[in-house]
TrEMBL record:
GO terms for cellular component: cytosol. Residues 20-144 form the Phosphoribosyltransferase domain. It catalyses: IMP + diphosphate = hypoxanthine + 5-phospho-alpha-D-ribose 1-diphosphate; GMP + diphosphate = guanine + 5-phospho-alpha-D-ribose 1-diphosphate. SUPFAM superfamilies: PRTase-like. This is Hypoxanthine-guanine phosphoribosyltransferase. GO terms for biological process: GMP salvage; guanine salvage; hypoxanthine metabolic process; IMP salvage. InterPro entries: HGPRT, PRTase-like, PRTase_dom. NCBIfam families: PRK09162.1. GO terms for molecular function: hypoxanthine phosphoribosyltransferase activity; magnesium ion binding.
């Protein structure tokens, strides 16, 4: 189904900017410092979770200063909708994960079902250690398990529908250079 581009532009015009590009970049710099300290000698495989992880992974990776292999996983459970459903795998790992340290990078930990399933998948595939990094952690009490957190988190975000910096509104605005919340959600 095609989408009305005027509506897409209106959504941005009415959105609330929660974090500017500068604030996101400062958060990424802090995450990079922590990750450089934690993983510098671990020869990790670093996976971006498509599609949302594309922007944060691209911008975080150039701030990491140690050798690593890089790839992507593609799992989705929102599929251009505003609420999540069953996780659908589109691409799994090309590398052998046996005995490896794996770092998963995604844009947001919302309810956490996506990240929990990806961590379980990597462990089942033989990874020795699986760490997670997310730009945003949404504040609410609906996590996949109580107290669920990523190992590295950039910013906490309020319980609204978010877009920008990799997160979409109906497939659009992943390119928005800031973190925005949809009016009324
Ligand atoms: O913590 P959860 O509630 O599981 O939600 C988080 C996931 O939702 C989004 O992906 P989505 O399924 O929208 O696919 P996309 O990355 O292609 O937009 C986001 O990129 C995370 O991967
Ligand atoms: N675009 C977008 N995708 C999500 N996936 C899980 N939570 C969100 C959200 O707030 N916005």
């Amino acid at each position: 189904m095609s989408i009305d581009l005027e509506h897409v532009k209106q959504v941005m015009a009415e959105a609330d900017c929660l974090f500017s590009q500068e604030q996101v970049e400062a958060a990424m710099a802090s995450m990079a410092t922590e990750i450089n300290q934690a993983l510098g000698d671990s020869n990790p495989i670093v996976y971006s979770v498509m599609n949302g992880g594309l922007i944060i992974a691209g911008q975080l990776l150039t701030r990491l200063d140690f050798p690593m292999e890089v790839g992507y996983l593609h799992a989705t459970r929102y599929r251009n909708k505003l609420s999540g459903g069953e996780l659908f795998w589109k691409a799994k790992a090309e590398h052998s994960l046996v005995g490896r340290t794996v770092l998963i990078i995604d844009d947001i930990l919302d309810e956490g079902h996506t990240l929990a399933a990806i961590v379980e998948y990597c462990k089942d595939a033989g990874a020795e250690q699986v760490l997670t990094a997310v730009l945003l952690d949404k504040k609410h009490d609906r996590k996949a398990y109580p107290g669920m957190r990523a190992d590295f988190t950039g910013l906490e975000v309020e319980d609204r529908y978010i877009f920008g910096f990799g997160l979409d509104y109906k497939g659009y605005w992943r390119n928005a250079a800031g973190i925005f919340a949809l009016k009324g959600h």
